[in-house]
Amino acid sequence: MVSRVLVAMDGSEVAETALEYALDAFPAASITVLTVVGEPSAMFGEATAIALSEHPEESMAEYAAPVVERAREIAADHDAEIDLQIGSGHPARVILDVADDYDTVVVGSHGGSLTDRLFVGNVAEKVVRRSPVPVTVVR
């Protein structure tokens, strides 16, 4: 029986579909939505802004706010409660670091940005290959 589910959300439509799937497929489970901010990039954008902030935790919450709010809306539409967690760093690595605490992980097949689509499923593929628990990939 699945009692703890981790759902990775990145703000894409497919991630929203992953959360909806988890809420429908595991109605009795405790569901945690994890969003990851501050991934290092060649342009030093989000990661640098968070690292240089006087209050990194507040900066992370600010960057994650749109995803967190959407997750809350989806949960409310399903009359469900969810836990929310914000991570910082490389998405696949952050997901894999906490996956052991759950019975299963649910991820979208790819993210929403053009870069993510060029490397379709890069995060999902890494999570599937390395996860210590079963993974469901939602399209």
Overall description:
It is a single chain. Strand 1, helix 1 and strand 2 (30-37) form a beta-alpha-beta unit. It contains six helices and five strands. By secondary structure, it is of the alpha/beta class. The chain has a five-stranded parallel β-sheet with strand order 3-2-1-4-5. The chain has a single domain, classed as 3-Layer(aba) Sandwich (Rossmann fold). Pfam families: Usp. Belongs to the universal stress protein A family. InterPro entries: Rossmann-like_a/b/a_fold (IPR014729), Universal_stress_UspA (IPR006015), UspA (IPR006016). Residues 1-139 form the UspA domain.
Mean pLDDT over the full residue set: 86
Q: Return the CATH topology.
A: Rossmann fold
Strand content: 15-25%
Specify the oligomeric state: single chain
Give the biggest beta sheet. Answer: 5 strands, parallel
Summing up helix and strand content along with how strands pair, one would put the structural category as alpha/beta
- Order the strands across the largest sheet as they lie in space: 3-2-1-4-5
Rough outline: globular
Number of domains: 1
Helices and strands, in order, run as: EHEHHEHEHHE
N→C terminal distance: 24 Å
Q: What do we call the CATH homologous superfamily?
A: HUPs
- Per CATH, the architecture is 3-Layer(aba) Sandwich
Q: Residue ranges: pLDDT <50 for 5 or more in a row? A: none
> Given this structure, which CATH class is correct?
Alpha Beta
Helix content: 40-55%
Treating each run of at least 4 consecutive H or I residues as one helix, how many helices? 6
Query: Rg, please?
Result: 14 Å
Domain UspA: 1-139
Pfam families: Usp
InterPro entries: Rossmann-like_a/b/a_fold, Universal_stress_UspA, UspA
Protein name: Universal stress protein
